[in-house]
Amino acid sequence: MSDKIERVKTLIIGSGPAGYTAAIYAARADLKPVMYTGMEPGGQLTTTTEVDNFPGYPDGIDGPTMMVQLQQQAERFGTEVRIGMITAVEFSKVPGGIHKVIADGEKEIEAETVIISTGASAKYLNIPSEQRLRGGGVSACAVCDGFFYKGQDVAIVGAGDTAAEEASYLANICNKVTMLVRRDEMRASKAMQHRVNSLKNIEVRYNTEVDEVLGDQVVEGLRMVNNKTGEKDEIAITGLFIAIGHKPNTDIFKGQLDMDETGYLITKGKSTKTNLPGVFASGDAQDKEYRQAVTAAGSGCMAALDAERYLAEIGSVEETVAGQYKI
Ligand SMILES: Cc1cc2nc3c(=O)[nH]c(=O)nc-3n(C[C@H](O)[C@H](O)[C@H](O)COP(=O)(O)OP(=O)(O)OC[C@H]3O[C@@H](n4cnc5c(N)ncnc54)[C@H](O)[C@@H]3O)c2cc1C
Which residues form the FAD/NAD(P)-binding domain (predicted)? Predict the structure, then answer.
């Protein structure tokens, strides 16, 4: 541990759309935010080429550029962005208490407020051809990328409610959707299964797994294997969607913050407040429902406003902010 312990007003953990939006608002409210970017500076959008649905970009924008611009906007107002990981936390349980945070396993920071925006990671199959073609036709987000495959043949892997919903979404846009289900039945609810089965352009293949994604630079086809018979079969597709779940990046908060059985942080009512005073959660880490950049950004804004109001309430923020919010 270093000898000198740093004290910050607002610590932001994570540098996706939620973290940067929280940083913009917190910096403009003079909370002097310090942000730790984590292992993926810029977050999930740095893994995608085209973002077409974020408001304000009429011609679309590539994910990495958008995230650099968000960083520049946050820094313009004084956010200190640090490349590093938060590796441990010891949150205070009392209003006005100081939260202890360890960065990169050694640096101790004391924070008056903490905004968590650590996101969620999409699960992949982790076979080499899938990893190679990520961003070249392999995607983990049908709502984000389905539009690019309008009128084309695609496939989706997964058997739960999200997979069924994404398959139905794709069926409205694409020519044909082949759905690969590993077992001999879907895990999705009966209602969702009914929806999938009622759509004529979805073909469900049970006991079927991906053997290899075909294509050099972009997806051109899929080789599937029947896990009962071992039989292999190929289809021509241009897009492959992986819908086998997400894992929220919340392990370091276990035992301190309330979370659901899959690890999504639980916030109070319409706010970003967690069960502990001065600790706020935003973005995909607390949202298994929408998981979009714009919703993450919206909740990042809310987290900064919640932090600002909390600081005003406990008497840490001087006249500038205290006058604005009468709590
Ligand atoms: C392939 C793909 C394409 C997508 N396309 C679109 C699209 O077109 N439009 C759209 O709206 N949405 C899209 N999404 C969804 C969108 O990317 C997410 O909803 C959004 O990025 C969530 O933002 P976030 O800030 O909550 O978290 P994330 O973007 O997941 O960022 C999390 C951040 O937390 C950091 N972090 C994690 N743990 C720690 C730690 N211990 N210490 C410090 N930092 C930590 C990470 O390094 C990262 O910077 C796409 C997602 C994927 C995977």
Answer: 9-300
